[in-house]
Amino acid sequence: MKLGEALADRADAVRRVEQLRTRITGSARYQEGELPSEDAGALLIELDEVLDGLETLIRRINRTNATVPVGGLGTLTDALARRDVLRLRHAAITSSADAAAGGGRGQYARQLRSELKMLAALPVAELRGRADQLARELRELEVQIQRTNWEADLLD
């Protein structure tokens, strides 16, 4: 099995856990004289099975991520850490540029000459350029990660 398949299976298992949790809470109580819509006990057993499988899958994914190399970035775990930081950095730079530009208030915040003029404390154009560069790096890294996910075999 390829790592990419395992990641898709993990996402499916997480969705399944949430569905089962919702069904269990919906069936955990019922009115006297009525039958519950589903057997909450059986659903709990199924939930345990899905969670046990999910734990095994996550362990295998983590082992694989810690050993599979990605270009000159180190392991897949290193690349994922880099991606997470790039996302945070991009979001911070973008929001900083938006705030300095007036963040949705438009260029003309003053209506009367007597009103205070708002000035940008940060170089908006430079921040936007930096955000564009970070977005480009993030896209390139994401391609490398996805390629690795579909080329790497999942470890036991």
Give an overview of the whole structure.
The termini are close together. 69% of the residues lie in helices and 0% in strands. The protein has helices spanning 3-27, 40-67, 76-101, 124-151. The chain has four helices and no strands. By secondary structure, it is an all-alpha fold. Helix 1 packs antiparallel against helix 2. The protein is flat, with a radius of gyration of 25 Å. The model has no long low-confidence stretch (mean pLDDT 93).
List the helices and strands and how they pair.
Layout: H1 3-27, H2 40-67, H3 76-101, H4 124-151
Low-confidence stretches: none
Q: Report the average pLDDT across residues.
A: 93
Describe the sheet with the most strands: none
Number of helices: 4
Compute the number of strand runs: 0
Please give a quick description of this structure.
The protein is mainly α. It has helices at residues 3-27, 40-67, 76-101, 124-151. The radius of gyration is 25 Å and the shape is flat.
Distinctive features:
single chain, 156 residues, mainly alpha
